[in-house]
Write a structure and sequence with these properties.
Layout lengths: L9 H11 L6 E5 L8 E4 H17 L7 E5 L4 H12 L3 E5 L5 H11 L3 E4 L2 H11 L7 E4 L13 E3 H10 L1 H14 L5 E6 L9 E5 H14 L7 E4 L6 H13 L3 E4 L6 H8 L3 E4 L1 H16 L3 H18 L5 H20 L6 E4 L6 H9 L4 E6 L6 E4 L12 E2 L4 E5 L6 E6 L12 E6 L6 E2 L3 H7 L6 E10 L2 E7 L4 E2 L5 E2 L1 H8 L5 E7 L6 E7 L1 H10 L7 H6 L1 H15 L8 E6 L19 H7 L1 H7 L6
Parallel strand pairs: 1-11, 3-4, 3-5, 4-8, 5-6, 6-7, 10-11, 10-12, 12-13, 13-14, 26-27
Antiparallel strand pairs: 1-2, 8-9, 9-20, 14-15, 15-16, 17-18, 17-19, 19-21, 21-22, 23-24, 25-26
Helix pairs in contact: 2-3, 2-6, 2-7, 4-5, 8-9, 12-13, 12-14
C-alpha cells in the first residue's frame, strides 16, 4: 500500500503530513498524562507548533547542519517532537537507551560529540549531570520533567517547557533559516546515529541516512497495509531501529495514530485502553501471553482443557486454509475461547509485528490459530532495519518471510565464502531453497557506516557492498529462515556444531520456563541455565503445601526439581542426540537489562551469563570426561 504522502526525506514526511492534516482534528500522537487519566490526543496542528518552537530554539543555539543532538528518554510525545525538530534543522538524532548506566551514556555523548542532551525523568537527568563535565562538546541539558532534587538544577540544565517558550519567541526571527534548512535536507544526509547495544565490546554508532530509513519505510508499506484507520501502541525503545522505522516513521507515513504505552510493564493494561490495531513487539511479549494462557488452561477443568484443545485445532486448520466444516466451527471456537484473548489485546488488533529476535514457531502458530496474526520480520540496526518480513495472510511460521522490495539478501558459504544464492525483493515469485550460510544484505537500506570507525565499517561491509550480518540462515521456498548467530554456535567435545537459539525457542513454550540459556562449549553434553516462571512455581508450592523462606530453598525442593527434570526430558525428545539437554540448574533471579545479562533489546549476553554463573557451570560439568 502506498504511503499517505509523498516524501524522499524524513523532513519531507513531516512537512507533508502537517500540510495534509492542517486545520483538522486528526490525531498524530496520544499519551496518558497520569496513570489514572485517559489518553490525551495531540493533533498535527499542535505537533507543528511544538516542533517549530523546538527547532527555532535549536537554531537560536547555533546548532549547525550535521551536528548531533542526543535524547535519553523512554517513549513519549516529547521524544517525537524533538526528533522531528532535529530533522527539520538538518541535525543528527543520537538516541540512547533509557536503561543505560551513566558510563555508557558518557561514552556515547563523547563519541558522537553531541551538543545538546535532552533527557526525560529525574533518573535520566541525574546521569546527564554526572557526565556533563566529562563531555566538552556538550553545551546544555534539557529536561522533559522538572527536577525534584535541587542539586540537579544546574545552570546548564533547562526545562523543556522553558525552551519551547523561548523558541516561540524567536519563531519569526528564525522562520527564514528554518525553511532554508528544511529544504536543504538531502536523502544522502545522515539522519541518526543509532548505537548498537552489542553483546560484547563498546557500542558503535550506525550512521543511517534519510535514504536508508525512507527506502525501508516505503518497502514496508509495499509489503504491509498501514493506513489512516490504524492505531499503533508504542512501547519498544524508540532509540532502537526496529521501533524507529516500524513503530514510528512507518506509522506516520500511513497516517496511523501513535499511542504511547506508559511503560513496558503496563503494555497489557494499555492495550485495553488504547485499543490498537497494530502492535510492534519483540517475541518476549508473545512468549509471556502464550505461557499465561497455557497455565490458565492447565489449571482449568478437564472440560475446559478439552474445549481449548478443540478450539486450537479448529483455529489452526482454519488458518491453514481448511474450510468446509471448519468454517462453521470457527465462530464457535472464537466465542468459547479466542474472543476472550482478543479482548485482552484491546479487541481491534489487525496484526502484530515481531522482530528483534526469533519468534518460536509454536508460539507464532498459537497466535495465528487464535486469529491474532503475527508478521515476523528480520533485520539489523545497520540495515535500517528490515530485510525480510512475512506479509498479512501469507505468513509462514518458522521463517522471517520474503525479501523486501529494493533489498537483496544473499547466503554465503561459511567455509569458502562463496555466494550460495541471492534473492531480491523483485525476484518473486521464486521457490529457491538452499543450504545454510551467513546472511548478507545489499541495498538502499544498508547503513553509511559506523561513526568515526572505518575499520569496523570495513569489517561489516565488504568491497562488493555486501553487509555481513553475522547471522546464519537459509532460504526455504523463497523465504528466509534464521538459524542463529555465528558467534553463538557451540562446538561440543565431539566437534559437532550446535546452535543454541532454536533449542531455547523450543523450551520457551514450557509454562514452567521463563528464560533459558543453553551451554556446552567443548563439553560432551548440552546443559541449560533456567529461570523458572516464578508465578507458576509459587502457585505449585502453595497448592502442594511446600514450605520455604527463600526462593533458593524452593528451587532445591525435590518435587520442583522433578518438574523441571520432566520438562527437560520431554522437550529433549524432539532434539538430535548431541543437542539434548542432559543437565540443568535453576536460577533465582531473571536475566535483565539492569543486571547486565540482556541487551536493551532483550537479547541474551551469553558471555556475561557464562562468566557470572561460572561456578554453576563448573558444577554441571564437574564429572565431564572431556
Amino acid at each position: 500500500m502506498p504511503t499517505i504522502v509523498a516524501f524522499e526525506t524524513l523532513t519531507d514526511l513531516y512537512i507533508n503530513l502537517v500540510k495534509k492534516y492542517k486545520n483538522s482534528e486528526k490525531t498524530a500522537f496520544s499519551f496518558k498524562p497520569t496513570p489514572e487519566s485517559n489518553y490525551k490526543s495531540i493533533s498535527w496542528d499542535t505537533v507543528k507548533e511544538d516542533v517549530t518552537a523546538i527547532a527555532s530554539f535549536l537554531l537560536e543555539q547555533k546548532i549547525e547542519k550535521g551536528e548531533r543532538i542526543a535524547i535519553l528518554s523512554e517513549n513519549r510525545y516529547e521524544w517525537a517532537v524533538v526528533d522531528l525538530a532535529i530533522q527539520m534543522i538538518g541535525a543528527v538524532n543520537v538516541s540512547l537507551y533509557a536503561t543505560l548506566p551513566t558510563g555508557q551514556c558518557e561514552y556515547i555523548i563523547q563519541d558522537s560529540g553531541a551538543k545538546i542532551f535532552f533527557v526525560s525523568t529525574g533518573i535520566q537527568l541525574k546521569k546527564a549531570v554526572e557526565l556533563f563535565d566529562n563531555c566538552p562538546e556538550l553545551i546544555s541539558v534539557i529536561a522533559f520533567d522538572e527536577p525534584k532534587v535541587s542539586k540537579y538544577k544546574k545552570g546548564y540544565v533547562k526545562l523543556f517547557d522553558t525552551i519551547c517558550a523561548a523558541g516561540l519567541k524567536v519563531e519569526h526571527k528564525q522562520a527564514k533559516e528554518l525553511k532554508k534548512r528544511s529544504m536543504a535536507t538531502r536523502p544522502e544526509d545522515v539522519s541518526t546515529l543509532i548505537y548498537t547495544s552489542g553483546t560484547t565490546g563498546k557500542p558503535k554508532g550506525a550512521m543511517l541516512t534519510h535514504r536508508n530509513i525512507v527506502s525501508n519505510v516505503k518497502a514496508a508499506h509495499a509489503a504491509i497495509n498501514i493506513g489512516e484507520q490504524d492505531r499503533c501502541l508504542s512501547f519498544l525503545p524508540l532509540c532502537h531501529s526496529f521501533e524507529r522505522t516500524g513503530g514510528y516513521y512507518a506509522m506516520m507515513a500511513g497516517g496511523a495514530e501513535i499511542y504511547y504505552a506508559e511503560s513496558v510493564d503496563t503494555v497489557a493494561k494499555n492495550m485495553t485502553e488504547a485499543h490498537p490495531t497494530i502492535v510492534v513487539s519483540v517475541p518476549r511479549l508473545f512468549e509471556k501471553i502464550y505461557n499465561l494462557v497455557v497455565k490458565n488452561v492447565q489449571n482449568g477443568s478437564f472440560v475446559q482443557q478439552a474445549i481449548f484443545s478443540w478450539a486450537l485445532d479448529v483455529g489452526e486448520s482454519y488458518w491453514k486454509g481448511k474450510r468446509g466444516l471448519t468454517a462453521l466451527q470457527k465462530p464457535i471456537a472464537d466465542k468459547l475461547v479466542f474472543d476472550k484473548l482478543k479482548a485482552k489485546t484491546g479487541g481491534r488488533i489487525r496484526f502484530f509485528v515481531s522482530g528483534g529476535a526469533a519468534l518460536p514457531a509454536d508460539i507464532g502458530t498459537f497466535f495465528m490459530s487464535a486469529g491474532l496474526n503475527i508478521l515476523e520480520g528480520y533485520g539489523l540496526t545497520e540495515t535500517s532495519p528490515v530485510m525480510c518480513c512475512n506479509r498479512l495472510n501469507d505468513e509462514k511460521m518458522g521463517t522471517v518471510g520474503k525479501v523486501l522490495d529494493g533489498v537483496t539478501v544473499a547466503i554465503q558459504d561459511l567455509k569458502d565464502s562463496t555466494i550460495i544464492t541471492e534473492i531480491s525483493g523483485e525476484s518473486y515469485p521464486t521457490d529457491i531453497t538452499c543450504k545454510e550460510g551467513e546472511i548478507l544484505n545489499r541495498g538502499p537500506n544498508t547503513m553509511l557506516g559506523y561513526w568515526g570507525d572505518e575499520e569496523a565499517t570495513k569489517e561489516m561491509i565488504d568491497e562488493n557492498g555486501w553487509l555481513h550480518t553475522g547471522d546464519v540462515g537459509r532460504f526455504v521456498n523463497g523465504r528466509l529462515k534464521i538459524t542463529d548467530r555465528i558467534k553463538h554456535m557451540i562446538v561440543n567435545a565431539g566437534g559437532k556444531n550446535i546452535y543454541p537459539g532454536p533449542i531455547e525457542d523450543l523450551f520457551k513454550t514450557s509454562p514452567w520456563i521463563d528464560q533459558i540459556v543453553v551451554i556446552g562449549e567443548k563439553r560432551s553434553f548440552m546443559a541449560a541455565l533456567i529461570v523458572p516462571d516464578y508465578e507458576a512455581l509459587e502457585k505449585f508450592a502453595h497448592q502442594n503445601d511446600i514450605q520455604y523462606q527463600l526462593l533458593e530453598e524452593l528451587l532445591k525442593d525435590e518435587s520442583v526439581q522433578n518438574i523441571f527434570g520432566k520438562e527437560v526430558r520431554s522437550f529433549s525428545k524432539e532434539l538430535a542426540s548431541h543437542e539434548k539437554i542432559r543437565d540443568f540448574r535453576l536460577l533465582v533471579n531473571e536475566f535483565t537489562v539492569e543486571s547486565g545479562e540482556l541487551t536493551p533489546t532483550l537479547k541474551v549476553k551469553r558471555r556475561v551469563i557464562e562468566d557470572k554463573f561460572s561456578d554453576l557451570i563448573k558444577d554441571i560439568f564437574e564429572n565431564d570426561q572431556y
